[in-house]
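Appendix B. Raw example, untouched.
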Amino acid sequence: MKIVQLPLGPLGTNCYILSEQERSLVIDPGGDSSQLIDYLTDNNLKPSAVLLTHAHFDHIGAVDDVRDHFDIPVYVHKAEANWLTDPNRNGSAFFQMGEITARNAEHHFEIGEMVIGPFQLDVRHTPGHSPGSVSLVLRGEAIVIAGDTLFQRGIGRTDLPGGDMDTLLSSIRKELYTLPDSTKVYPGHGPATTIREEKRENPFVTM
């Protein structure tokens, strides 16, 4: 399996493309839809779905264009089922860059094992940055796509609607720090890290 990181949108949100031969998944398409669609097309990739680690505006900017171009469904946690259409919930109303919305998702995540084509994921509910934040563990790959839950030497902000610091720290300790130390963490912003590095070096949350 191949994973590609594309920083997209107004805040350079990491969009991840998982691919197995021509099959692919798109995770957190934050913006710059033409760039993303061109990448998929130029590499002969056929996405099966868009997966959202959460529904903040900087993660959803290209959702509708990608969904419509490839005729694929979108997944989000049910706690944020109505966030895509609501600038006050997705946070875009609080920033001076215009309101960002998308249509509602076709599917809500079931926590636990999820299989889409050749991709086997373990969906973990990791609230705190937002109530519907999820982290996606790639089974057999020692990889977790953590959204804005855990960063290299950082954690997600908790000052937007639905954020809670205690909940976030609990999510990290219970759902991420229990993964093998060698697990590579792909965050919503910035460079990748590992569970081992964050247990040792993260100034915000330790075991």
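End of appendix B.
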